[in-house]
Amino acid sequence: MTKSEHHHITILGSTGSIGCSTLDVVAQLGGRERFVVEALTGNGNIGLLCEQAKAVGARLAVTADEGRYLELKSALAGTGIAVAAGPSGLQEAAARAAEWVMAAIVGTAGLAPTLTAARRGADIALANKECLVSAGALFVRAVAEGGGRLIPVDSEHSAIFQALEDDQRHALERIILTASGGPFRTWSREAMAGVTAEIARAHPNWSMGLKISIGSASMFNKALEMIEAKHLFDVAPEQIEVIVHPQSIVHSMVGYTDGSVLAQLGAPDMRTAIGYALTYPARPALNVERLDFAKLARLDFEAPDEVRFPALRLARTALTRGGLQGAAMNAAEETAFEAFIGGRIGFLDMADIAETVMERMIDWPAAGDMDDVFAGDAAARRFATEAIGARAAA
Ligand SMILES: NC(=O)C1=CN([C@@H]2O[C@H](COP(=O)(O)OP(=O)(O)OC[C@H]3O[C@@H](n4cnc5c(N)ncnc54)[C@H](OP(=O)(O)O)[C@@H]3O)[C@@H](O)[C@H]2O)C=CC1
Ligand SMILES: CC(=O)[C@@H](O)[C@H](O)COP(=O)(O)O
Ligand SMILES: [Mn+2]
């Protein structure tokens, strides 16, 4: 991509944490001089969506919330920006002719539009790990059949992608995912039992959306990332390790058969991974913090504790069992997360609910097509809702 060349892009989830960082990177790399923004999508934050769409001259702005269509339409009246809403609006955004699509909607809600973009051959910059946890190999295949590239954005997977050269794949021995350990890294289970969402959302190093922040605290985020790594890098479960690294400076590592370990390091700022995905295989010049190793002084590592953080054990179980266990764990955790932030269950209940649902779905065979994935996801949500109800009634 040369500087004068227009690059057509779409950002699914532009109003979120990743979406805003993506727009910052786009601005740093030339903004409207260099990029044509085909579509931006958001959900409830109509004010920010309009501001973003006007700033970049987006061709289409979409809210996922059908009930907000008229509000969006009147806010953008006279700007020439087309508007749409709801699931069909998201599909319209994904179907537009952008060569590069940032998948940054939170949760399984991102799967259908990301699939549409993948099937028409767009390069997919994947922040939405839920696509891979739910749909796994089917999603990878959809991108490959569409002809686009699947470029990881999640910081750990971007790090691995950067440290894993294609011509060295034969020597790949293990993937070492780093985990901050979240705000409760040193807490006992008894102490975690009573925490509120306000406390759990305070990540020690990263500024992120609510769902992933709570997932970092329960280590469900790392659980999702273990499954994400399996599908992105086509490795066996036993090749995936997790190491707690409280500073979040080493974003992840690749171990090779000669004993070498290659790591990618950087400040905890998603703009580096986003910039890499946007310009891949080039590396852009970005205005982000540089590491000062003398100031850092030390980097720490510790073994993860699967008793205090059972999500890690559940991910290992899902990886070993296969079938629809990834989709079950993901949908159950998403449902339990909503119940936790709504004050209906406690922090530790989230893992119990996910485990209950995984056990109920232990015999569900691997998905043959995307309909099976959506059916499995819906069933897991039903089972999780039942388990939440039973817990609340007890
Ligand atoms: N934040 C981070 O640093 C990282 C995030 N990720 C992953 O990236 C994804 C996005 O995370 P993050 O940016 O933190 O999340 P945010 O909650 O900050 O943003 C989510 C985005 O999705 C939109 N959205 C919410 N619900 C729906 C829905 N039902 N349908 C369509 N759109 C919806 C939101 O719209 P609105 O705000 O208008 O309501 C917003 O644009 C997640 O999958 C996360 O795991 C991965 C690595 C790092
Ligand atoms: C920025 C990013 O990719 C997040 O997934 C972040 O790494 C969360 O950190 P932990 O889940 O390790 O706390
Ligand atoms: Mn991550």
Structure summarized in a few sentences:
The chain is of the alpha/beta class and 394 residues long. It has 17 helices and 11 strands. The longest helix has 24 residues, at 370-393.
List the helices and strands and how they pair.
Blueprint lengths: L6 E6 L4 H12 L6 E8 L3 H11 L3 E4 L5 H7 L6 E4 H10 L4 E4 L7 H9 L3 E4 L3 H17 L3 E3 L2 H9 L8 E8 L9 H5 L3 H4 L9 H9 L1 H14 L6 E5 L5 E7 L4 E5 L5 H9 L13 H4 L13 H12 L3 H17 L7 H12 L9 H24 L1
Helix pairs in contact: 1-12, 4-5, 5-6, 6-11, 6-15, 11-14, 14-16, 15-16, 15-17, 16-17
The site of NADPH dihydro-nicotinamide-adenine-dinucleotide phosphate has 29 residues, from helix 1 and helix 10.
Describe the structure in your own words.
- There is one protein chain.
- By secondary structure, the protein is α/β, with parallel strands linked by helices.
- It has a domain at 7-152: NAD(P)-binding Rossmann-like Domain (Rossmann fold), CATH 3.40.50.
- Helix content is 47%, strand content 15%.
- It has 17 helices and eleven strands.
- The chain has helices spanning 17-28, 46-56, 69-75, 86-95, 111-119, 130-146, 155-163, 189-193, 197-200, 210-218, 220-233, 271-279, 293-296, 310-321, 325-341, 349-360, 370-393, and strands at residues 7-12, 35-42, 60-63, 82-85, 100-103, 123-126, 150-152, 172-179, 240-244, 250-256, 261-265.
- Strands 4-3-2-1-5-6-7 form a seven-stranded parallel β-sheet, sandwiched between helices. Strands 9-8-10-11 form a four-stranded mixed β-sheet, covered by helices on one side.
- Strand 6 (123-126), helix 6 and strand 7 (150-152) form a beta-alpha-beta unit.
- Helix 1 crosses helix 12, helix 6 (130-146) packs across helix 15 (325-341) and helix 15 crosses helix 17 (370-393).
- It is globular.
- The mean pLDDT is 97.
- The structure holds NADPH dihydro-nicotinamide-adenine-dinucleotide phosphate, 1-deoxy-D-xylulose-5-phosphate and manganese (II) ion.
- The site of NADPH dihydro-nicotinamide-adenine-dinucleotide phosphate has 29 residues, from helix 1 and helix 10.
- 1-deoxy-D-xylulose-5-phosphate binds next to helix 7, helix 10 and helix 11.
